[in-house]
Amino acid sequence: MSNQRAKLVVGNWKMHGRLAVNAVLLEGVVRGAQALPQDVRVAVCVPHPYLAQAQALLGGSRVAWGAQDVSVHEQGAYTGEVAAGMVADFDATYAIVGHSERRAYHGESSEVVAAKAQRALEAGVTPIVCVGETLEERESGATGQVVGAQLDAVLAVLSADEAARIVVAYEPVWAIGTGRSASSEQAQEVHAFLRARLAAKGAQVANVPLLYGGSVKPENAADLFRQADIDGGLIGGASLKAGDFLAICAAAAAGADIAG
Ligand code: PEP
Asked: Containing domain of residue 12, as a range?
C-alpha cells in the first residue's frame, strides 16, 4: 500500500565526477526528468566544487541540487570546511548530513549531525538526515534503538516547525554500496518506526519525507517505493548513470500513481 505523499528521489554522487562527465550526466537527467509526472521531485547531491556546475546546468529545470555535507560552523578558521551558507549561495535545495560514510570515516557523532542539520536549516537548505544501523547492530536486534537514537539527537535540537522542514533517509549501513538492499518489508518496518518517532515530535513533523537508501536499483525501486512509509530514495551508485537514475525516478512515479 503506497501513500499520498509526493515522492522524492535524490542522487548522492559521493566523490565521483569531473566537469565533462558531470555535464553529460546532468543534461541526461534534465532531459529524462521532463517526462516524469509532476508529483515526483528529483535532486542530485554533488561534490562541493560542482555546485556551481549543477546550478548552471540544472537552474530552470525540474531537477534540484544539493551538497553532501556542511560544516557545524557558520564561518571561521576551519580549513577545508564548507559552510551551509556557502552551499546556499549556489541555490542548493538540499544538504545530506550524517551519511554513514561521514559517521564511519570522519567520526561524526549524532550530536555533530544535529548541529549540521541546524546550520543547514538556518541557511535555508533542507538537511537530508541519514540514519542507519550496521549489520552487527541489526543482527543483535538493536536496529530500532540505533536509528531511534540517531533521529532523536537531531529532533532534540530542533523546534517542531524546524523538524517539519527536514528530510530523513533510512540507510542501513550493510546495504550501502553492497548490492544488498533491505527487503521492502525490512525497510517499511524501520520507516514505520521512524514515522512514529517523527509524529511524536508534532503533527506537522509526521509527514516529513522518509527516503530509503541502500543499493536501490531500477529492479527493486518500485517495490520499495510502494511501501506505506517510503516516500522515495537516496540513490548512490545508480545515480551515476542517467538511465538507471531516471528509471528509479519513474518507479517512484509508478508508486505514487498507485496511491492516487
Ligand atoms: C548512498 O550512498 O547514500 C547509497 C544509498 O549508496 P548505494 O545506492 O550505492 O547503496
From this structure: 7-259
